[in-house]
Design goal:
This protein is of the alpha/beta class and 473 residues long. It has two domains: 2-200, Rossmann fold (3-Layer(aba) Sandwich); 207-472, Dihydrodipicolinate Reductase, domain 2. The chain has helices at residues 5-13, 15-21, 25-39, 59-74, 93-100, 120-130, 149-158, 178-189, 207-218, 220-223, 248-252, 255-273, 285-295, 312-316, 416-425, 435-454, 468-472; strands spanning 48-54, 81-87, 110-114, 136-142, 166-171, 197-200, 231-239, 304-309, 326-331, 343-348, 355-362, 372-378, 382-390, 398-406, 459-462. The structure holds 6-O-phosphono-beta-D-glucopyranose (BG6). 6-O-phosphono-beta-D-glucopyranose is lined by residues 202, 240, 259-260, 356.
Length: 473
């Protein structure tokens, strides 16, 4: 079962990690299979691939995609990968690589293609330039502002750049609400089959996000207590210290709910709630996530709050801005496993720290008990359980300690964008969002979006650098 390879590649490459992670027979079996595959030189990524990046000089490309490409190519497993960088002006590849990576190693793999993305004929030129062979695939990565995506998709489709060997990689936001998401999905579906579309939610591809599945599925300790009888509440939080930086235009049209909560946090929630069957297969992951989201009830606006940090409106150049830089909602699930357990999602910018975690609070039998288990997604990656222990000494006193799993120092965890690119090349779709998931997440949040749209006074100011828990209580 090759789908298990991602988890096991971490395990197999490091004995220490392996002993910590692989606790179930199933995972051991997968690890053995991976070694078998490597031993037989069926190396991942061997298909001839042309990766076309629209927006090659943009922020995402220079900060995330080029470093990720440099890294995956350095593994030696992607000899057949070449990159075509699309830009309006003639691309100076060496200058781009110098400023993004500080090295020019990728230059031999890259060519530039300059075009006007609003000119249909240029897409025909691009098609000729790509020269797609029968044994090759093309990945078209749209790293462009959201407003440009529908037009580019239309031109690509009209130019016939949607043959079966073409994969389309799309960045969020996938619409701004339920209606626009429907429209966007239908529009892309005019030219591309769902199997060709890779909707990127980079949180799904983070190492620790995948580890939620491993920890929950592979350890009886977690398995038996993963339900409403034992769990009192779940919080999924993504806090950022940074503000909107130089993305005012994007952020003004987006806000915290659309930017992070609708996609990233909903996906983390789905992984936390979803059923992990005994015969779990990574290929079923998207379906399991969707099932969990289908059981989450539509959000109640009375259980949602939004805020804007002081100074945001000036920074965004829009004095009357009603864009939220903080959003939190409390959701509920109708599933018999989770009914009645508050599911709290919260995200914000300009808070006191950068932290993404899933906090699971167990029901206490009395006050003097600890009850917290934390999946730490970033910046520290691991799992932490709070434990009461006896304080060393003659007195019988207790103190809270932390039982933690962390990756051994020096273990390099892949960046989410490395994972995204590797999986797209290898046609592994389980860490990408399906159209159904995207629509369901918008549907859940629709009542809140509508209520906020009608009530400007629901936007509360907050002081930069504030502690999240002073906002959500
Ligand atoms: C992006 C959002 O999707 O995720 C940004 O558009 C946010 O606003 C970013 O800063 C956070 O990603 P990460 O991986 O740094 O947590």
């Amino acid at each position: 079962m090759v789908e298990g390879a991602r988890l096991e590649s971490v395990c197999a490459s490091n004995g220490t990690v392996s002993s910590n992670l692989i606790l179930s027979t199933k995972f051991i079996q997968l690890a053995v299979e991976l070694q078998f595959l490597i031993g037989n030189k069926r190396i991942l990524g061997s298909m001839k691939t042309k990766l076309v990046i629209f927006g090659i000089t943009g922020d995402l490309s220079t900060r995330k995609l080029l470093p990720a490409l440099e890294q995956i190519i350095s593994t030696g497993n992607f000899d057949e990968l070449s990159i075509i960088g699309v830009s309006r002006r003639t691309l100076d590849i060496e200058q781009l690589l110098d400023s993004s990576l500080g090295s020019r190693g990728l230059a031999s793999r890259m060519t530039g293609f300059s075009m006007d993305v609003s000119n249909a004929e240029d897409y025909l030129r691009l098609k000729d330039f790509i020269e797609l062979g029968d044994d090759e695939q093309v990945l078209i990565y749209l790293s462009v502002p959201p407003v440009a995506t529908p037009h580019i998709v239309e031109f690509l489709g009209q130019a016939g750049l949607n043959m079966p060997q073409v994969k389309l990689l799309l960045e969020k936001p996938f619409g701004v609400d339920l209606d626009s998401a429907h429209q966007m999905i239908d529009h892309v579906a005019k030219y591309y089959a769902e199997s060709q579309i890779y909707r990127i939610d980079h949180y799904l591809a983070k190492e620790m996000t995948q580890n939620i599945v491993a920890f929950r599925g592979g350890n009886a300790l977690f398995d038996h207590v993963w339900n409403r009888s034992a769990i009192e509440k779940i919080q999924v939080v993504a806090l950022e210290k940074i503000g909107i930086e130089n993305r005012a235009q994007f952020y003004e049209q987006t806000g915290a709910l659309r930017d992070v909560l609708q996609g990233h946090l909903m996906q983390l929630l789905a992984l936390t709630l979803m059923e992990i069957p005994r015969d779990f297969d990574w290929n079923d992951l998207a379906g399991l996530r969707l099932r969990a989201l289908e059981q989450v009830q539509l959000a109640d606006p009375a259980l949602a709050i939004r805020g804007q940090y002081d100074g945001y409106a000036d920074e965004a150049g829009n004095p009357g801005s009603l864009t939220e830089t903080f959003a939190a909602v409390e959701l509920n699930s109708t599933s018999p496993t989770w009914q009645g357990v508050p599911l709290i999602l919260a995200t914000g910018k300009s808070l006191d720290k950068k932290t993404t975690e899933v906090r699971v609070y167990f029901r206490k039998h009395h006050e003097a008990q600890t009850n917290r288990l934390i999946f730490k997604i970033q910046p520290f990656e691991g799992v932490e359980i709070e434990l009461y222990t006896k304080k060393p000494g003659y007195d019988r006193q207790f103190e809270i300690q932390r039982l933690a799993f962390e990756y051994p120092e020096g273990v390099k965890l892949p960046d989410a964008y490395e994972q995204v690119l590797v999986d797209a090349i290898n046609t592994k779709k389980n860490l990408f969002a399906t159209s159904h998931e995207v629509l369901r997440a918008w549907e859940i949040l629709q009542p809140v979006q509508q209520a906020w749209g009608m009530d400007p006074s629901s936007l509360e100011p907050y002081t930069k650098g504030i502690d999240l828990y002073r906002i959500i209580g």
